[in-house]
Amino acid sequence: MLPEIEKQSKEKIKVFQEEKLRQHLEYLNSKSAFYKRMFKNNNIDIRKIKTLEDLQNIPVTTKEDIQSYNEDFICVGKKDIIDYITTSGTLGDPVTFAMTDNDLERLAYNEAISFACAGCTDEDIFQLTTTIDKRFMAGLAYFLGARKLGAGIVRVGSGIPELQWDSIERMKPTVLIAVPSFILKLIEYAEKKGIDYKKSTIKKAVCIGESLRKPDFSLTTLAKKIKDKWDIELYSTYASTEMGTAFTECKYGIGGHHHPELIIFELLDDNNKAVKDGEAGEVTVTTLGVEGMPLLRFKTGDVCYAHSEPCKCGRNTMRLGVVVGRKKQMIKFKGTTLYPPALYDILAEISGINNYVIEVYTNDIGTDQIHLRISCDNPSEEFEKQIKDSFRAKIRVSPEVEFDSFENIQKISFPETSRKPITFIDKRKK
Fold first, then answer.
1. Are 100 and 291 in contact, with CB atoms under 8 Å apart?
2. Element housing 107 (H / E)
3. What is the full DSSP assignment across 21-59?
4. Under a CB-based contact definition with an 8 Å cutoff, are residues 227 and 219 in contact?
5. For residue 288, which phi and psi values (nearest 5 degrees)?
6. Lowest-confidence pick of 115-119, 132-136, 184-188, 233-237
7. Minimal CA–CA distance to 201: which of 170, 221, 162, 174?
8. How far apart are CA 106 and CA 101, in angstroms?
9. Letter string b/e over residues 383-414, b meaning 16 or more CB atoms within 10 A of that residue's CB
């Protein structure tokens, strides 16, 4: 299930996207109150936007725009809206998105070709360990995509290792859709209960929410821990509610492949200009083929690298590397610039930590301070020193460390209204 356009030359892909862009601008100009106003207020003649480079002449769209003018982004009548979803609200209030029947079909197509990129076929059975409720797009996308692919589906949902293993033994799925840290919990449960997980039918996992790879594509500590215990294939996938499109790895593991029929992406600097080749930039997307709430140059907040070298899988599309961090979560700590994923990787290497939350606040002198709230079996000054030494060795600075109970940290990490575990809390003065 490899779309023909993804095998074409980069020149043909560009021409293809520019025609899609022209159609997209015409649709926005006729249907979107927000973009119609933007074009008018900025004296933009959409007929003059002919190339991907011409996008630089159009202002970016921000999350704050969608929050402030949510209904102005909707391009269809209420009778055409089939599904309402919201973003997770990681960086602010959740944003509502309205989807038509065609948008759901587009979502299914996106996920089906993304699963195919990860080597999945209609012979597979997917076990979904993600929620399909709570207004969550991802769980719905995985269900629709597996269905579009023609594969079997086991909808278990999040948590409950006992039910996960019961489902694996009964239905014999071959693919897990899971957060990597949850796979470790499944392994730990299996070991405690004497389940021979290495002989299960699971052959691969398509992983969401946490990085499997570092910027150089080597495995993160978390991914290594999984592979050391359970030699299954691991595939990263990156997406967001706003883009309604996934960037999924193929078997060569060198970045998530771009679907040019579904999305235009740019990497922008702080001045909303394209970064130079080889530089990280903020992922900015234009969603193609969306009816309900199409977007133009939307800044996601995610910082990534792009890669353009040909891939052995036969796709000639650009690839996105791992998310280095979220723009608004950047930490400037004692002269060092950090993003939370770098901290997660250090903590994953330290044995003895049961769970944790990273808190960042503004200290008395007005600079960023990192506070680690950690639970472990044997808290001690010696273990605190070990944690701080690990940070000094990796990033040259050490955070504050506070030991807390497993239960207290669980309450912080899994509030009732959240669809994802919370491991980073920003308490800085805005």
1. yes
2. helix 101-117
3. HHHHHHHHHHH-HHHHHHHHHTT--GGG--SSGGGGGS-
4. yes
5. -95, 140
6. 132-136
7. 174
8. 9
9. bbeebbeebeeebeebbebeebeeeebeebbe
Domain ranges of the chain: 1-326, 330-426
Q: Which amino acid belongs to residue 268? A: L
Q: Which fold has domain 1-326?
A: Rossmann fold (3.40.50)
pLDDT of 429 higher than 80:
no
**Residue 304 identity (one-letter amino acid):** C
Kindly report the three-state secondary structure assignment for every residue of 259-324.
Answer: CCCCEEEEEECCCCCECCCCCCEEEEEEECCCCCCCCCCEEEEEEECEECCCCCCCCCCCEECCCC
Q: Is the pLDDT of residue 143 over 90?
A: yes
Neighbours of 191 (CB within 10 A): 12
Residue 399 CA to residue 424 CA, distance in Å, equals 14
Nearest to 174 by CA among 225, 124, 103: 124
The structure tokens listed for 381 are 């000054």
The string of pLDDT tens digits covering residues 46-57 is 999 999 999 999
Q: What is the CATH number of domain 330-426?
A: 3.30.300.30
Sign of CA pseudo-dihedral 154, 155, 157, 162 = negative
The Cβ of residue 155 has, within 10 Å, a number of other Cβ atoms equal to 16
Pick the closest to residue 363 from 403, 389, 400 (CA basis): 400
Distance between CA atoms of 81 and 124, rounded to whole angstroms?
32
The mean pLDDT value for 363-380 works out to 85
How many angstroms separate the CA atoms of 288 and 274, rounded?
A: 20
Q: How many angstroms separate the CA atoms of 143 and 84, rounded?
A: 16
Distance of CA 269 to the CA centre of its chain: 20
Instruction: Report the C-alpha gap between 324 and 304 in whole angstroms.
Output: 6
User: If you compute the radius of gyration of the chain from its CA atoms, what whole number of angstroms results?
Assistant: 22
Within 8 A by CB and 6+ apart from 4, the residues are none
